[in-house]
Specification:
The chain is of the alpha+beta class and 431 residues long. Strands 1, 2, 3, 4, 5, 6, 7, 8, 13 and 16 form a ten-stranded mixed beta sheet that branches. A four-stranded antiparallel beta sheet has the order 10-11-9-12. Helix 3 packs antiparallel against helix 4. The C terminus is likely disordered. The structure holds (R)-mevalonate. (R)-mevalonate binds next to helix 4 and helix 5.
């Protein structure tokens, strides 16, 4: 079987850092994505590869360890954490393609996490809502980096434009900014946790000064929401410029970021500001009609990316149904992690000693060549096992966002025509 899932990167338009103190924020999905393919393997190892990022690693998903074969680890930790939570630890082959620059403030880790989880859920035929996916993805980010608001994983899941309110409730903004924008990326990696800590320290030292600044960022974000809904592009630009000044005031600006912001404005951007944590990373410039001018001007010193906003959130699909004849005999017999003929596997919930189990619904039961019996219970118990782990994570997730007004989006995320439904009594598992 082969599945694929993809999820967009994001840009924060308004409210970064203030969102950590329960102020609102506005973020948008962008036209760059992470794409994760998962397929069955004949090997007894789980392999993760990314040509785009130049790495290859062998993963021990159960113990959250990896052996790097080439490249740098970076994003691997997010994939490993997602696999640890939502995979049964059987060997698989994972391929990551990504055109979101890593560590640039464009939500690469969230996009990779969301796409990996969606691919795994599709692979295991587990049903989930976007809300559930965003919550687990946030927990993965939290486990890996220690600090994270739910914003990145929410936008990667839902796509479009979202407004996160003061109660961490999510509202989709029913408007689309058609104007293209340019992102300028500094060569310096911006550490979110370091910058968030810096703002916290400043707030503790100067509460009377800093608290109103944070609240003003919140008020400005509310004004921006109205401007976006009314399609008032000039006002959006002006508010971006004010937001940049306030981000400078809370200490997350740098010389490079400032240079890019002012160069962009000089070349015709109507709004230009830091996006994300700052301290490095990126700026965003709204520049209708001036995309090339702004991109060329920033490009003299720094890297630039031309982007558009994207309505498309996470997607997943089944590419190839599992075919029993794809499985080598050796794999079935020798693979220590495999459910095939392996009753020692602690992850194997199958209490029946019948060795001739095939733990999937995608078996060709008519195949005379096959000695394996299609056992849907085994597959369902496999999925339920993962689901249980995922639910444990969900109940521990203390930084949940509440998602409002989007019944449509809360419909179960995929409708897998090829798979048989997993029988259970959960009401929210409606197809
Ligand atoms: C980072 O992309 C945005 C911050 O507000 C931190 C967060 O929301 O987790 C700086």
């Amino acid at each position: 079987m082969e599945v694929m899932a993809s999820a967009p990167g994001k840009t924060i338009l308004f409210g970064e850092h203030a969102v950590v103190y329960s102020q609102p924020a506005i973020a948008a999905a962008v036209s760059k994505r992470a794409i994760v393919h998962i397929k069955d393997t004949q090997s007894n190892k789980t392999i993760l590869k990314s040509e785009d990022l130049g790495f290859e690693a062998e993963l021990d998903t159960k113990n959250k360890k990896y052996i790097l074969k080439k490249g740098k680890p970076g994003i691997i930790r997010y994939i490993l954490e997602a696999l640890h939570i939502a995979h049964n630890h059987n060997p698989i082959e994972i391929t990551l393609s990504i055109d979101i620059p890593i560590g640039s403030g464009l939500g690469s880790s969230a996009a990779v996490t969301v796409a990996t989880l969606a691919a795994l859920y599709r692979y295991h035929n587990i049903y989930f809502t976007k809300k559930e996916l965003a919550e687990i993805a946030h927990q993965v980010e939290f486990n890996v980096q220690g600090e994270a608001s739910p914003l990145d994983t929410l936008i990667s899941t839902y796509g479009g434009l979202i407004y996160l309110d003061r109660n961490k409730e999510l509202h989709k903004i029913n408007a689309h900014i058609n104007a293209p924008f340019v992102v300028g990326v500094t060569s310096k990696y911006g550490s979110t946790s370091k910058m968030v800590k810096g703002v916290k320290l400043l707030k503790e030292r100067f509460p009377k000064v800093m608290d109103p600044v944070i609240e003003t960022i919140g008020d400005l974000t509310d004004e921006a929401k109205t401007a976006i809904e009314k399609g008032n592009i000039n006002k959006i630009g002006e508010l971006m410029n004010i937001n940049h000044g306030l981000l400078d005031a809370i200490g997350v600006n740098t010389k490079e970021l400032s240079r890019m912001v002012y160069i962009a404005r000089g070349a015709g951007a109507i709004g230009s500001k830091i996006t994300g944590a700052g301290g490095g990373g990126s700026i965003i410039s709204l520049c209708p009609g001036k995309v090339d001018d702004v991109s060329n001007a920033i490009g003299v010193y720094d890297s630039t990316i031309k982007l558009t906003f994207s309505k498309k959130g996470v997607t997943s699909k089944l590419i190839g149904a599992r075919n029993i004849n794809n499985y080598g005999k050796n794999n079935r017999k020798n693979n220590p992690n495999s459910n095939y003929n392996n009753n020692n596997n602690p992850n194997n919930n199958n209490n029946n000693n019948n060795n001739k189990k095939y733990p999937t619904k995608y078996t060709n039961t008519n195949s005379k060549k096959s000695n394996f019996v299609n056992n849907n219970n085994s597959s369902a118990s496999n999925s339920r096992n993962i689901e249980k782990r995922v639910n444990n994570v969900k109940s521990n997730n203390n930084n949940k966002s509440k998602i409002k007004n989007n019944n449509k989006d809360n419909k179960k995320f995929y409708q897998n025509q090829n798979a048989q439904p997993i029988k259970n009594n959960r009401k929210d598992y409606a197809r």
